Amino acid sequence: MTGTAQSARILIRGGRVYDHDGDVHQPAQTDILVGGERIERIGPNLPADAGVEIIDAAGKLVAPGFINAHYHSHDVMAKGLFEEMPFDIWTLHSNPANYGPRTLAEVRLRTLLGAAESLRNGITTIQDFLTLVPQDEAIVDTVLSAYEEAGIRVVFAIAARDRAALDIAPFIPKDLPEAIRRRIAGSDRKAKDELDFITAQIRRLGNNPTARQTWALAPSAPQRCSQELLEGIAALSRELAMPVFTHVYETRIQAAAARQQPSATSLIDVLARAGLMNEHLNIVHGVWLTAHDIAQIAEAGARVVHNPVSNLKLKSGIAPILDLHRAGVDIALGCDNYSCAETQNIFLAMRMLCLLPAVTDPEPGPINAAYALRAATLAGARAVGLSHKIGALKPGMIADLMILDLREPAFVPFNSAARQIVFAEAGRAVETVLVGGRPVVRNSRLVAVDEAALAAEVDEIAPAFRRDAQTLAARNADLVAPLLNANREAWKVSLGFERYVGRGST
Ligand SMILES: [Zn+2]
Questions:
Q1: Is the bond leading into 134 cis (omega within 30 degrees of zero)?
Q2: Which residues contact residue 179 at a Cβ distance below 8 angstroms, ignoring those fewer than 6 apart?
Q3: How far is it, in rounded angstroms, from Cα 331 to Cα 284?
Q4: How far does the centroid of ligand 1 lie from the alpha carbon of residue 276, in Å?
Q5: How far is the centre of ligand 1, averaged over its atoms, from the C-alpha of 353 (Å)?
Q6: What's the gap in Å between 103 CA and the centre of ligand 1?
Protein backbone atom coordinates (compact mmCIF):
# COMPACT_ATOMS: atom_id res chain seq x y z
CA MET A 1 0.00 0.00 0.00
CA THR A 2 2.50 2.65 -1.02
CA GLY A 3 1.19 5.74 -2.67
CA THR A 4 1.22 4.89 -6.35
CA ALA A 5 -2.11 6.70 -6.75
CA GLN A 6 -0.65 9.82 -5.14
CA SER A 7 0.25 11.61 -8.33
CA ALA A 8 -3.43 11.74 -9.34
CA ARG A 9 -4.94 15.20 -9.70
CA ILE A 10 -8.32 15.90 -8.16
CA LEU A 11 -10.64 18.86 -8.66
CA ILE A 12 -13.02 19.36 -5.73
CA ARG A 13 -15.68 21.41 -7.40
CA GLY A 14 -18.24 23.85 -6.02
CA GLY A 15 -17.99 23.20 -2.28
CA ARG A 16 -18.05 25.76 0.47
CA VAL A 17 -14.41 25.85 1.59
CA TYR A 18 -13.74 26.52 5.27
CA ASP A 19 -11.15 29.26 5.76
CA HIS A 20 -10.02 30.06 9.34
CA ASP A 21 -9.37 33.66 8.23
CA GLY A 22 -12.51 34.05 6.11
CA ASP A 23 -16.25 33.91 6.82
CA VAL A 24 -16.38 30.99 9.24
CA HIS A 25 -20.20 30.98 9.22
CA GLN A 26 -20.93 31.12 5.49
CA PRO A 27 -17.71 29.99 3.75
CA ALA A 28 -17.49 30.97 0.10
CA GLN A 29 -18.20 28.44 -2.62
CA THR A 30 -15.07 27.70 -4.64
CA ASP A 31 -12.95 24.96 -6.22
CA ILE A 32 -9.83 23.21 -4.93
CA LEU A 33 -7.32 21.65 -7.31
CA VAL A 34 -5.17 18.97 -5.71
CA GLY A 35 -2.00 17.79 -7.47
CA GLY A 36 -0.01 14.98 -5.87
CA GLU A 37 -0.08 15.48 -2.12
CA ARG A 38 -0.63 19.25 -2.23
CA ILE A 39 -3.32 21.83 -2.84
CA GLU A 40 -2.27 23.52 -6.10
CA ARG A 41 -4.96 26.16 -6.46
CA ILE A 42 -8.10 27.43 -4.78
CA GLY A 43 -10.50 29.62 -6.75
CA PRO A 44 -13.84 29.70 -8.55
CA ASN A 45 -14.41 27.81 -11.80
CA LEU A 46 -11.01 26.11 -12.05
CA PRO A 47 -10.61 24.25 -15.36
CA ALA A 48 -10.73 20.46 -15.31
CA ASP A 49 -7.81 19.26 -17.44
CA ALA A 50 -7.85 15.83 -18.99
CA GLY A 51 -7.17 13.10 -16.49
CA VAL A 52 -8.30 15.12 -13.50
CA GLU A 53 -10.77 13.35 -11.23
CA ILE A 54 -13.70 15.59 -10.37
CA ILE A 55 -15.31 15.37 -6.93
CA ASP A 56 -18.63 17.20 -6.99
CA ALA A 57 -18.82 19.15 -3.73
CA ALA A 58 -21.92 21.22 -4.50
CA GLY A 59 -24.04 21.36 -1.32
CA LYS A 60 -21.02 20.25 0.69
CA LEU A 61 -18.51 21.80 3.03
CA VAL A 62 -14.77 21.23 2.61
CA ALA A 63 -12.82 21.56 5.86
CA PRO A 64 -9.23 20.90 6.93
CA GLY A 65 -8.71 17.44 8.42
CA PHE A 66 -8.51 17.24 12.20
CA ILE A 67 -5.31 16.52 14.09
CA ASN A 68 -5.74 14.26 17.09
CA ALA A 69 -2.76 15.32 19.19
CA HIS A 70 -3.12 12.67 21.88
CA TYR A 71 -3.93 9.00 21.38
CA HIS A 72 -2.57 5.60 22.41
CA SER A 73 -3.31 2.70 20.08
CA HIS A 74 -2.28 -0.01 22.55
CA ASP A 75 -5.71 -0.49 24.10
CA VAL A 76 -8.20 -0.21 21.25
CA MET A 77 -9.43 -3.68 22.21
CA ALA A 78 -10.39 -2.39 25.69
CA LYS A 79 -13.11 -0.10 24.33
CA GLY A 80 -16.13 -0.19 26.63
CA LEU A 81 -14.57 -2.38 29.30
CA PHE A 82 -14.27 0.15 32.14
CA GLU A 83 -16.10 2.96 33.86
CA GLU A 84 -16.26 4.59 37.29
CA MET A 85 -12.52 4.17 37.77
CA PRO A 86 -10.42 7.09 39.02
CA PHE A 87 -7.12 7.41 37.15
CA ASP A 88 -4.82 5.15 39.18
CA ILE A 89 -7.33 2.30 39.34
CA TRP A 90 -7.95 2.62 35.62
CA THR A 91 -4.17 2.51 35.04
CA LEU A 92 -3.99 -0.78 36.91
CA HIS A 93 -6.68 -2.23 34.62
CA SER A 94 -5.45 -0.77 31.32
CA ASN A 95 -1.65 -0.58 31.47
CA PRO A 96 -0.33 -2.66 28.54
CA ALA A 97 2.48 -3.96 30.76
CA ASN A 98 -0.19 -5.77 32.81
CA TYR A 99 -1.53 -7.59 29.73
CA GLY A 100 1.77 -9.02 28.47
CA PRO A 101 2.68 -9.41 24.80
CA ARG A 102 -0.10 -9.41 22.18
CA THR A 103 0.06 -11.13 18.80
CA LEU A 104 1.13 -9.09 15.78
CA ALA A 105 -2.25 -9.96 14.23
CA GLU A 106 -3.99 -8.27 17.15
CA VAL A 107 -1.61 -5.30 16.94
CA ARG A 108 -2.45 -4.87 13.25
CA LEU A 109 -6.22 -5.13 13.79
CA ARG A 110 -6.35 -2.74 16.74
CA THR A 111 -4.25 -0.17 14.84
CA LEU A 112 -6.48 -0.42 11.77
CA LEU A 113 -9.62 -0.15 13.88
CA GLY A 114 -8.46 3.06 15.57
CA ALA A 115 -7.32 4.51 12.25
CA ALA A 116 -10.63 3.58 10.60
CA GLU A 117 -12.77 5.32 13.21
CA SER A 118 -10.47 8.34 13.14
CA LEU A 119 -10.71 8.73 9.37
CA ARG A 120 -14.48 8.26 9.38
CA ASN A 121 -14.61 11.15 11.88
CA GLY A 122 -12.45 13.44 9.76
CA ILE A 123 -9.20 12.91 11.69
CA THR A 124 -6.44 12.94 9.09
CA THR A 125 -3.46 13.01 11.48
CA ILE A 126 -3.08 10.98 14.63
CA GLN A 127 -0.36 11.25 17.25
CA ASP A 128 0.07 7.72 18.50
CA PHE A 129 1.90 7.62 21.88
CA LEU A 130 2.43 3.87 21.92
CA THR A 131 3.56 1.68 24.79
CA LEU A 132 5.35 -1.34 23.33
CA VAL A 133 5.24 -4.61 25.25
CA PRO A 134 7.89 -5.85 24.69
CA GLN A 135 10.02 -3.20 22.99
CA ASP A 136 10.27 -5.09 19.74
CA GLU A 137 10.77 -3.63 16.29
CA ALA A 138 8.31 -6.10 14.76
CA ILE A 139 5.53 -4.26 16.65
CA VAL A 140 6.75 -0.91 15.33
CA ASP A 141 6.70 -2.26 11.77
CA THR A 142 3.25 -3.80 12.21
CA VAL A 143 1.77 -0.57 13.58
CA LEU A 144 3.31 1.66 10.92
CA SER A 145 2.27 -0.68 8.14
CA ALA A 146 -1.33 -0.77 9.45
CA TYR A 147 -1.46 3.04 9.46
CA GLU A 148 -0.13 3.06 5.91
CA GLU A 149 -2.74 0.48 4.92
CA ALA A 150 -5.55 2.72 6.24
CA GLY A 151 -3.95 5.79 4.67
CA ILE A 152 -3.96 8.04 7.75
CA ARG A 153 -1.10 10.41 8.61
CA VAL A 154 0.64 9.36 11.82
CA VAL A 155 3.09 11.12 14.08
CA PHE A 156 4.44 8.09 15.86
CA ALA A 157 6.03 8.03 19.30
CA ILE A 158 7.33 5.15 21.39
CA ALA A 159 6.46 5.72 25.05
CA ALA A 160 9.49 5.83 27.35
CA ARG A 161 9.60 5.33 31.10
CA ASP A 162 12.17 3.87 33.46
CA ARG A 163 10.31 4.34 36.75
CA ALA A 164 7.50 1.84 37.10
CA ALA A 165 5.68 2.93 40.28
CA LEU A 166 2.06 4.03 40.04
CA ASP A 167 1.69 7.79 40.42
CA ILE A 168 -0.27 7.20 43.61
CA ALA A 169 2.58 5.20 45.24
CA PRO A 170 3.65 8.01 47.67
CA PHE A 171 0.20 7.81 49.28
CA ILE A 172 0.16 4.04 49.79
CA PRO A 173 0.19 3.25 53.51
CA LYS A 174 3.42 1.63 54.71
CA ASP A 175 1.52 -1.06 56.65
CA LEU A 176 0.02 -2.74 53.57
CA PRO A 177 1.19 -6.31 52.83
CA GLU A 178 4.55 -6.34 51.05
CA ALA A 179 3.04 -8.21 48.05
CA ILE A 180 0.60 -5.37 47.42
CA ARG A 181 3.27 -2.68 47.86
CA ARG A 182 5.53 -4.51 45.38
CA ARG A 183 2.80 -4.56 42.74
CA ILE A 184 2.23 -0.82 43.14
CA ALA A 185 5.98 -0.16 42.93
CA GLY A 186 6.51 -2.30 39.79
CA SER A 187 10.04 -2.89 38.41
CA ASP A 188 12.12 -0.03 37.10
CA ARG A 189 13.90 -0.17 33.75
CA LYS A 190 17.13 1.43 32.51
CA ALA A 191 17.10 4.87 30.91
CA LYS A 192 19.79 3.79 28.46
CA ASP A 193 17.74 0.82 27.20
CA GLU A 194 14.72 3.09 26.59
CA LEU A 195 16.80 5.68 24.73
CA ASP A 196 18.75 3.09 22.73
CA PHE A 197 15.58 1.39 21.48
CA ILE A 198 13.90 4.63 20.41
CA THR A 199 17.04 5.99 18.75
CA ALA A 200 17.59 2.69 16.92
CA GLN A 201 14.03 2.71 15.54
CA ILE A 202 14.31 6.30 14.30
CA ARG A 203 17.69 5.55 12.68
CA ARG A 204 16.42 2.30 11.15
CA LEU A 205 13.27 3.80 9.59
CA GLY A 206 14.47 7.37 8.99
CA ASN A 207 12.83 10.65 9.95
CA ASN A 208 10.00 9.97 7.49
CA PRO A 209 9.27 6.23 7.43
CA THR A 210 6.75 7.06 4.64
CA ALA A 211 5.37 10.28 3.12
CA ARG A 212 2.62 10.20 5.73
CA GLN A 213 4.74 9.23 8.74
CA THR A 214 6.90 11.26 11.09
CA TRP A 215 8.11 10.81 14.67
CA ALA A 216 7.59 12.40 18.04
CA LEU A 217 9.17 11.61 21.42
CA ALA A 218 7.09 10.48 24.37
CA PRO A 219 8.51 10.38 27.90
CA SER A 220 5.47 9.00 29.75
CA ALA A 221 5.47 11.66 32.51
CA PRO A 222 8.17 13.53 34.44
CA GLN A 223 7.54 11.47 37.60
CA ARG A 224 7.79 8.22 35.58
CA CYS A 225 11.21 9.08 34.11
CA SER A 226 14.67 9.55 35.60
CA GLN A 227 16.54 12.78 34.98
CA GLU A 228 18.88 10.77 32.71
CA LEU A 229 15.97 9.62 30.54
CA LEU A 230 14.42 13.10 30.30
CA GLU A 231 17.79 14.62 29.39
CA GLY A 232 18.32 11.95 26.74
CA ILE A 233 14.91 12.72 25.21
CA ALA A 234 15.68 16.46 25.28
CA ALA A 235 18.95 15.85 23.44
CA LEU A 236 17.19 13.75 20.78
CA SER A 237 14.48 16.39 20.37
CA ARG A 238 17.12 19.10 19.90
CA GLU A 239 19.16 17.01 17.46
CA LEU A 240 16.20 15.95 15.30
CA ALA A 241 13.93 19.01 15.86
CA MET A 242 11.29 16.55 17.05
CA PRO A 243 8.12 17.31 19.02
CA VAL A 244 7.87 15.90 22.54
CA PHE A 245 4.65 14.82 24.26
CA THR A 246 4.46 14.06 27.96
CA HIS A 247 1.64 13.62 30.48
CA VAL A 248 1.85 16.38 33.10
CA TYR A 249 -0.44 17.02 36.06
CA GLU A 250 -3.26 14.92 34.68
CA THR A 251 -4.54 14.18 38.19
CA ARG A 252 -4.72 15.85 41.57
CA ILE A 253 -2.73 12.93 42.98
CA GLN A 254 0.19 13.73 40.67
CA ALA A 255 0.20 17.36 41.85
CA ALA A 256 -0.13 16.33 45.51
CA ALA A 257 2.65 13.72 45.13
CA ALA A 258 5.02 16.30 43.63
CA ARG A 259 4.41 18.52 46.68
CA GLN A 260 5.05 15.59 49.03
CA GLN A 261 8.59 15.18 47.67
CA PRO A 262 11.30 16.37 50.12
CA SER A 263 12.03 19.38 47.89
CA ALA A 264 8.37 19.97 46.86
CA THR A 265 9.35 19.44 43.25
CA SER A 266 7.41 21.18 40.50
CA LEU A 267 7.09 18.81 37.55
CA ILE A 268 7.45 21.79 35.21
CA ASP A 269 10.81 22.57 36.88
CA VAL A 270 11.82 18.93 36.40
CA LEU A 271 11.13 19.29 32.67
CA ALA A 272 12.97 22.63 32.59
CA ARG A 273 16.06 21.15 34.30
CA ALA A 274 16.13 18.37 31.71
CA GLY A 275 16.12 20.93 28.88
CA LEU A 276 12.60 20.09 27.70
CA MET A 277 10.77 23.38 28.33
CA ASN A 278 10.73 24.80 24.82
CA GLU A 279 8.51 25.12 21.75
CA HIS A 280 8.86 21.40 20.93
CA LEU A 281 7.14 20.43 24.19
CA ASN A 282 3.49 19.44 24.45
CA ILE A 283 2.10 19.16 27.97
CA VAL A 284 -0.61 16.51 27.71
CA HIS A 285 -3.61 17.19 30.04
CA GLY A 286 -2.25 19.95 32.34
CA VAL A 287 -5.38 19.79 34.49
CA TRP A 288 -3.56 20.62 37.75
CA LEU A 289 -1.19 23.33 36.53
CA THR A 290 -0.74 26.30 38.89
CA ALA A 291 -0.77 29.91 37.69
CA HIS A 292 3.04 29.84 37.98
CA ASP A 293 3.25 26.65 35.86
CA ILE A 294 1.04 28.27 33.23
CA ALA A 295 3.29 31.34 33.09
CA GLN A 296 6.35 29.08 32.64
CA ILE A 297 4.66 27.18 29.79
CA ALA A 298 3.71 30.42 28.05
CA GLU A 299 7.24 31.79 28.51
CA ALA A 300 8.78 28.63 27.01
CA GLY A 301 6.41 28.61 24.03
CA ALA A 302 5.35 25.07 24.98
CA ARG A 303 1.78 23.90 24.34
CA VAL A 304 -1.02 22.05 26.12
CA VAL A 305 -2.94 19.15 24.60
CA HIS A 306 -6.43 19.16 26.11
CA ASN A 307 -8.23 15.81 26.45
CA PRO A 308 -11.59 16.76 27.95
CA VAL A 309 -13.33 13.39 27.65
CA SER A 310 -10.70 11.25 29.38
CA ASN A 311 -10.18 13.93 32.06
CA LEU A 312 -13.84 13.66 33.01
CA LYS A 313 -14.24 9.92 32.57
CA LEU A 314 -11.25 9.26 34.85
CA LYS A 315 -12.47 11.90 37.33
CA SER A 316 -9.27 13.91 36.85
CA GLY A 317 -10.95 17.34 36.80
CA ILE A 318 -11.24 20.16 34.28
CA ALA A 319 -8.19 21.80 32.70
CA PRO A 320 -7.83 25.59 33.21
CA ILE A 321 -8.58 26.41 29.57
CA LEU A 322 -9.41 30.07 30.11
CA ASP A 323 -6.28 30.69 32.21
CA LEU A 324 -4.10 28.96 29.60
CA HIS A 325 -5.68 30.95 26.80
CA ARG A 326 -5.33 34.26 28.66
CA ALA A 327 -1.65 33.48 29.27
CA GLY A 328 -1.18 32.97 25.52
CA VAL A 329 -0.67 29.20 25.64
CA ASP A 330 -1.53 27.34 22.46
CA ILE A 331 -4.08 24.55 23.03
CA ALA A 332 -4.37 21.46 20.81
CA LEU A 333 -6.93 18.67 21.21
CA GLY A 334 -6.68 14.97 21.87
CA CYS A 335 -9.15 12.10 22.18
CA ASP A 336 -6.89 9.86 24.34
CA ASN A 337 -7.18 6.09 24.47
CA TYR A 338 -10.13 3.83 23.93
CA SER A 339 -10.01 2.36 27.45
CA CYS A 340 -10.68 5.78 29.00
CA ALA A 341 -12.46 7.78 26.30
CA GLU A 342 -13.97 5.14 23.98
CA THR A 343 -14.03 7.15 20.75
CA GLN A 344 -11.72 9.03 18.41
CA ASN A 345 -13.93 12.03 17.79
CA ILE A 346 -12.59 15.58 17.59
CA PHE A 347 -16.12 16.95 17.06
CA LEU A 348 -16.80 15.88 20.65
CA ALA A 349 -13.46 17.24 21.92
CA MET A 350 -14.15 20.64 20.29
CA ARG A 351 -17.62 20.77 21.81
CA MET A 352 -16.27 20.03 25.28
CA LEU A 353 -13.48 22.59 24.82
CA CYS A 354 -16.12 25.25 24.15
CA LEU A 355 -18.58 24.15 26.84
CA LEU A 356 -16.34 23.41 29.81
CA PRO A 357 -15.17 26.98 30.54
CA ALA A 358 -18.76 27.72 31.63
CA VAL A 359 -18.37 25.56 34.73
CA THR A 360 -16.15 28.21 36.30
CA ASP A 361 -16.87 31.41 34.37
CA PRO A 362 -20.32 32.81 33.55
CA GLU A 363 -19.01 35.64 31.33
CA PRO A 364 -18.95 35.42 27.50
CA GLY A 365 -15.43 34.38 26.56
CA PRO A 366 -12.96 33.74 23.76
CA ILE A 367 -13.31 29.93 23.47
CA ASN A 368 -15.83 29.91 20.62
CA ALA A 369 -16.47 27.53 17.72
CA ALA A 370 -13.99 29.16 15.32
CA TYR A 371 -11.34 28.98 18.06
CA ALA A 372 -12.12 25.28 18.61
CA LEU A 373 -11.66 24.60 14.90
CA ARG A 374 -8.24 26.28 15.04
CA ALA A 375 -7.33 24.18 18.09
CA ALA A 376 -8.35 21.01 16.24
CA THR A 377 -6.32 21.87 13.13
CA LEU A 378 -3.70 24.67 13.27
CA ALA A 379 -2.71 24.17 16.94
CA GLY A 380 -2.66 20.41 16.38
CA ALA A 381 -0.34 20.91 13.41
CA ARG A 382 2.02 22.99 15.55
CA ALA A 383 1.90 20.32 18.26
CA VAL A 384 2.95 17.51 15.93
CA GLY A 385 5.62 19.58 14.18
CA LEU A 386 3.74 19.96 10.87
CA SER A 387 2.69 23.61 10.94
CA HIS A 388 2.50 25.32 7.55
CA LYS A 389 1.96 21.87 6.01
CA ILE A 390 -1.41 20.81 7.43
CA GLY A 391 -4.24 22.44 9.40
CA ALA A 392 -5.63 24.86 6.79
CA LEU A 393 -6.73 24.75 3.18
CA LYS A 394 -4.28 27.00 1.28
CA PRO A 395 -2.35 26.58 -1.97
CA GLY A 396 0.95 24.85 -1.26
CA MET A 397 -0.31 23.08 1.84
CA ILE A 398 -0.79 19.32 1.97
CA ALA A 399 -4.29 18.23 0.95
CA ASP A 400 -5.50 16.68 4.23
CA LEU A 401 -9.20 17.47 4.23
CA MET A 402 -12.74 16.26 4.70
CA ILE A 403 -15.93 16.89 2.75
CA LEU A 404 -19.11 17.13 4.84
CA ASP A 405 -22.60 16.64 3.44
CA LEU A 406 -24.63 19.76 4.29
CA ARG A 407 -27.90 17.89 3.77
CA GLU A 408 -27.29 15.93 6.97
CA PRO A 409 -29.59 17.07 9.83
CA ALA A 410 -26.72 18.71 11.77
CA PHE A 411 -26.35 21.29 8.99
CA VAL A 412 -29.99 21.98 8.09
CA PRO A 413 -30.66 24.89 8.03
CA PHE A 414 -27.11 26.00 7.30
CA ASN A 415 -26.65 29.00 9.60
CA SER A 416 -22.99 28.67 10.57
CA ALA A 417 -20.26 26.29 9.42
CA ALA A 418 -18.12 26.76 12.55
CA ARG A 419 -20.95 26.54 15.07
CA GLN A 420 -22.69 23.59 13.44
CA ILE A 421 -19.43 21.66 13.01
CA VAL A 422 -18.63 22.18 16.70
CA PHE A 423 -22.05 22.09 18.39
CA ALA A 424 -24.22 19.99 16.06
CA GLU A 425 -22.09 17.51 14.11
CA ALA A 426 -20.62 14.28 15.48
CA GLY A 427 -19.10 12.70 12.36
CA ARG A 428 -22.08 11.41 10.41
CA ALA A 429 -21.77 14.10 7.72
CA VAL A 430 -18.16 13.15 6.88
CA GLU A 431 -18.47 11.74 3.38
CA THR A 432 -15.03 12.01 1.79
CA VAL A 433 -11.58 12.31 3.36
CA LEU A 434 -8.28 13.01 1.63
CA VAL A 435 -4.89 12.46 3.26
CA GLY A 436 -1.88 13.71 1.32
CA GLY A 437 -4.14 14.27 -1.69
CA ARG A 438 -5.33 10.68 -1.73
CA PRO A 439 -8.98 9.78 -1.09
CA VAL A 440 -9.03 7.43 1.89
CA VAL A 441 -12.76 7.73 2.71
CA ARG A 442 -15.43 7.81 0.00
CA ASN A 443 -19.18 7.55 0.52
CA SER A 444 -18.47 7.47 4.26
CA ARG A 445 -16.48 4.23 4.02
CA LEU A 446 -12.75 3.56 4.05
CA VAL A 447 -11.35 3.08 0.57
CA ALA A 448 -8.50 0.67 1.33
CA VAL A 449 -9.91 -1.24 4.30
CA ASP A 450 -12.99 -3.47 4.13
CA GLU A 451 -14.65 -2.28 7.35
CA ALA A 452 -17.04 -5.25 7.61
CA ALA A 453 -14.22 -7.74 7.21
CA LEU A 454 -12.17 -5.81 9.78
CA ALA A 455 -15.06 -5.95 12.26
CA ALA A 456 -15.43 -9.69 11.68
CA GLU A 457 -11.71 -10.28 12.28
CA VAL A 458 -11.80 -8.19 15.46
CA ASP A 459 -14.83 -10.17 16.67
CA GLU A 460 -12.75 -13.33 16.43
CA ILE A 461 -9.98 -12.10 18.72
CA ALA A 462 -12.13 -10.02 21.08
CA PRO A 463 -13.21 -12.86 23.43
CA ALA A 464 -9.56 -13.71 24.21
CA PHE A 465 -8.81 -10.06 25.02
CA ARG A 466 -11.90 -9.81 27.23
CA ARG A 467 -10.81 -12.94 29.10
CA ASP A 468 -7.35 -11.42 29.69
CA ALA A 469 -8.99 -8.23 30.97
CA GLN A 470 -11.17 -10.26 33.34
CA THR A 471 -8.17 -12.21 34.63
CA LEU A 472 -6.35 -8.93 35.22
CA ALA A 473 -9.35 -7.42 37.01
CA ALA A 474 -9.49 -10.47 39.31
CA ARG A 475 -5.76 -10.10 40.03
CA ASN A 476 -6.26 -6.38 40.77
CA ALA A 477 -9.28 -6.84 43.02
CA ASP A 478 -7.34 -6.63 46.30
CA LEU A 479 -5.61 -3.41 45.18
CA VAL A 480 -8.75 -1.38 44.51
CA ALA A 481 -9.67 -0.59 48.14
CA PRO A 482 -6.10 0.46 49.14
CA LEU A 483 -5.87 2.66 46.05
CA LEU A 484 -9.20 4.34 46.76
CA ASN A 485 -8.02 4.94 50.34
CA ALA A 486 -4.73 6.39 49.09
CA ASN A 487 -6.73 8.60 46.73
CA ARG A 488 -8.68 9.95 49.71
CA GLU A 489 -5.41 10.48 51.62
CA ALA A 490 -4.07 12.57 48.74
CA TRP A 491 -7.14 14.79 48.96
CA LYS A 492 -5.89 16.01 52.32
CA VAL A 493 -2.86 17.66 50.69
CA SER A 494 -3.76 21.27 50.08
CA LEU A 495 -2.85 22.60 46.64
CA GLY A 496 -4.29 26.08 47.16
CA PHE A 497 -6.56 25.71 44.11
CA GLU A 498 -9.19 23.33 42.82
CA ARG A 499 -10.23 21.88 39.49
CA TYR A 500 -13.54 20.43 40.68
CA VAL A 501 -16.45 22.83 40.69
CA GLY A 502 -17.94 23.65 44.07
CA ARG A 503 -15.59 21.41 46.06
CA GLY A 504 -15.02 22.81 49.50
CA SER A 505 -18.05 25.11 49.31
CA THR A 506 -20.93 24.66 51.72
ZN1 LIG B 1 -2.22 9.66 27.39
A1: yes
A2: none
A3: 10
A4: 18
A5: 17
A6: 23
